[in-house]
């Protein structure tokens, strides 16, 4: 079997990937070891106080100035280096007057620095092939700020340049008042877009659960008051205090020699010196029970959060002080015991809910929160205004877990689940992306723990099997629910449902232990399940016809079902299975529209053959299997990530769902309840309204794309669900794709026994097969209202495009045009106006339909900026059609796209999605050969012609979402936009329109 990357280099599509630079190896140079590298018997800094075996793939170093680093070679994806710079300063390090400064500093570091002029960071990284927002990003949490760069297509020069630029960003950002004044509106826009009911719930929850601690009132986004008062001098003081080498960890993983990575860290950060004396981090505080609280039941703060548009949610937390630990094997064994304890309780809670309990979902989880508390959280979602019954039910199940040990059968079930997870991590170690490996180190540093290789984790877990017994699990369970203080928050739409006193009273009541949710031992084996039907026949098999990848096979079964198989060893231990069938959205009668959303939620849970949801969980215990279901425009899909040992049984599950579906009532009833509970929240913000209504409106008010109202959902029935879905599972062609490490002959035989045993499929009616969604046609912007904050709004502008295979190459060029549009809109609405944090432009082109595509631009804004957005989006569209883009602007789009395709093409999923449908339409195979060039090579004239075709030929559709009680400003005068954006007014007529 060939590795994917070795094979891919033979395909015309990816010829350029063969030009990726070879890793720079240490033996090619005669240079001294980096001075800070910790070698030999020296304990690496991350393992001090730990007896966890070192992950020898990492090299660690510590410099005289206190800066620490970790570097390693990793070739996933080829040619990429992932850099993480962690500053040990987050919102908990801020003084009261500095709230939001840690996050603002993150923005300012990108704004201008020693080696980067104003607003040059984004275009500079784009020229190096990195995409802003995914390859170049940053995050600020309560405890740290992390800068992230995934640099594709590395060369020695680009790597050196990147370290130089990053060093300037960290060490010498330009914190002028002009830069602060430019960046604060962008941060305020981000705050506004995140605001509303969700943010109010988060803040009130923090204030209650973390009362008396810094975490209670320090959201990383900050406050309007402190952000508006920010000055360059104050930001410089914050930077001097916290941006120091002693507070910095640099992590680099990538496709080059780790010694070279270490040298670059030391070259650009080794002479960094902090300004002034080092300042110790403030005391984050401990959770403390109120004076006089009962030590046996230490109830503390209780909070009721009233938000009319938010679903009910109840959380109580058993809180303990957080303390640094020595990250030893014994300590990790304790964490694993805790994890098994929680899994047992959660399975019982889930079983009770599925059986028709008083709550929709409930969960117990332990977490060390922001180095502020070690807490056990209990969260559930009541089905009605009665929160006391589910609280009692949940507490009773927990009381039983505290009172009595679990059975060994329960423990063994959870142990099997953990074991397969750890085995899978080990199997896939060689294909774990460098970006994820770097993030793991950052997370370990944040929680002050070491890092372990997958083989160590599995070895420790299997070595403690003797401790995984009822007695030890019981002791750990009791410890999880023992703490210094218990606090609670109830989120409700009705202020009359609860008070802090009623919460306290309910939590103060004794509850009896309820052991009825304990799961009895019950073994189910795939060997005992009935066959799907009489095994079918293989009528043809052979190469799919992709030059250079002849081992990708096309299989046809006697009943007409087809398959694409690619056994390869590129991703050890991983197999991707995808089944496409039927007709998707177009298959539904519009009068049955509510059953579309209900099917997305409940079809899998309704079961198959002899297996209901509980049985599905049990039969897949200790196996790596999945069952994701999705509805697309022209097909339904089942998807799973599995492994070689499980792929045959995974195929059985998918085939059995088509051939012998089950129609259990409880999953359908619970899905209806979940939909109804969530519906009111869909009016709580502009973004929520977009999620609820945009597809419906863009498909010209087609009810199949609508979110059902509670009344519509309540009108559905189990019988109606079966009436709608049963024939759809039998209709239309089926294509099974299996890509990854598996036994080819075994899978072919399994296909014969599973999908080959299905009856012949019912054809898709001609009226359905030819369906193409309509594009809305309105003269004025459509206006919807939300019930969120009065300063929040959203806007969408869209143009129709196309669909289908015939013009697929043009759709790829359209992606380049879309990214040009995106860059310009980002510069206008974010960088110049500060009106929107993250405006976006996307192109949607359905391959399976003869039309229905569209280009959309959208943003969240202030209500008064909605007309400005419409005017600016139309101006950009006109300018793209009238004036060719320059070569540098094109390169900033095409190079990241080229790198994106080159990286993605080294994985199975890329090929699977590109080739799906090829058994029914061979044109997809031929079109694959030009994919890389279509996405990465173009001309200014070609972009201008596309802009004329799609922007000049059609009037755009516009949607505004504004607060209730407000009116949309009607003026879209270009001079208004020009004044807002600081640009000259431009001609709005498209040449040749």
From TrEMBL:
One of its GO terms (molecular function) is metallopeptidase activity. Keywords: Hydrolase, Metalloprotease, Protease, Signal, Zinc. Residues 80-194 form the Peptidase M16 N-terminal domain. Residues 1-26 form the signal peptide. Residues 231-416, 734-892 form the Peptidase M16 C-terminal domain. GO terms for biological process: proteolysis. Belongs to the peptidase M16 family. This is Peptidase M16-like protein. It comes from Altererythrobacter epoxidivorans.
